[in-house]
Design a protein that fits this description.
The chain is of the alpha/beta class. The protein has 3 domains: 152 residues, Nitrogenase molybdenum iron protein domain (Rossmann fold), CATH 3.40.50; 204 residues, Nitrogenase molybdenum iron protein domain (Rossmann fold, 3-Layer(aba) Sandwich); 30 residues, no CATH class. Helix content is 44%, strand content 16%. The strands form 3 sheets. A 6-stranded parallel sheet has the order 1-12-11-10-13-14, with helices on both faces. Strands 2-7-6-5-8-9 form a 6-stranded mixed sheet, sandwiched between helices. It has a 3-stranded antiparallel sheet with strand order 3-4-15, with no helix packed on it. The radius of gyration is 26 Å and the shape is globular. The termini are far apart.
Length: 434
Amino acid sequence: MTVAIQRLSTVAADFAARLKELLAFEAAADEGIERTVAGILADVKARGDAAVVDYSNRFDRLTAVSMADLELSRDELEKALAGLPADRRAALEVAAQRVRAYHEKQKLDGWSYTEADGTLLGQMITPLDRVGLYVPGGKAAYPSSVLMNAIPAKVAGVKELIMVVPTPGGERNQLVLAAACLAGVDRVFTIGGAQAVGALAYGTESVPQVDKIVGPGNAYVATAKRRVFGIVGIDMVAGPSEILVVSDGSGNPDWVAMDLFSQAEHDELAQSILICPDAAFIERVQASIDKLLPTMPRQETIRTSLTNRGAFIQVRDMDEAIAIANRVAPEHLELALDNPDPWVEKIHHAGAIFIGHYTSESLGDYCAGPNHVLPTSGSARFSSPLGVYDFQKRTSLIKVSKAGAQTLGRVASTLAHGEGLPAHAKSAEFRLED
């Protein structure tokens, strides 16, 4: 059965309109979800631990009496790591090592310079004190997300990292707990949903208030993160996963088809797009999709995603392909080209670029090293992958010398009077010698 993927061509008169329609995604939360989340957050803010326990018992079918029943000990994390099959532990350790090595390169140092009159100016870099990490639980278990969020925080020097992970029916994913152990997570609470976000944002008797909340979650979690932003920082409110493959027709169509599947299997709203100037190659990828889809355990999710949000875009040439890629600003961009390197510098907007036929997007998800938390829905035009810099603050340093105060004081006074702020002006003038 052929998968009906929409076809776009840049020579068509309606191409611009169809591309805009293809990329449109409305991320606004459902009004019912907004009301529910607002109520939960208000209750957690008012009742603290008691509310968190009540909601955890109700939504996750638990029987906790207090928050003590919902916190895991370090021994439990170490036991999870020790109990992994040898191949999984080895894979997790390799991934953690590579992620850590990459993010070590991102660490920022403070700097300063001294002017001729002795005035010192500079910047001090300090880590956040405490960060909350939300990790999905139950069937959706992502140990890779633990590594990608926790390791940069620890490399940055975050003093305390608190992980929350729901355990529906009491089911604890050992791979997630093992990843938390490897990444250096300090405390783990088996709570989830909006109540967990509220606990991290406001603090309760047992859960300390954090400075920033990171990590993926469902619509309730995303809505809660939006609502508490400003009280705490957040990483981003991510949209559905995306992949855009730019091909020159030189690759293996089976590889391209499977790369498109790799994002489409996330959920029905994920988006997989192929851009190629070679019409014959597009047909070969279509044939590969039809051949390989029946072998996929998540074939119905893939089919729905490809049918509703996928596309093949035929372009005139590679220059046009790159221009459209920059217009899309995808989360994941694969340059499936025989000679990709000259084209990399022409990419201005992408969360991550996967260069050449052997660089599957899945390697970036798990173990290449760069972070897999990436901007979606075109936000790569103005935002970046999660990194060490997201867990550090920059503080300006200003030490004005006596001589510097004479020069800068007159400048500040003039500008302050111009803005109608006389106290500002006087503050600078009091330090002038004449």
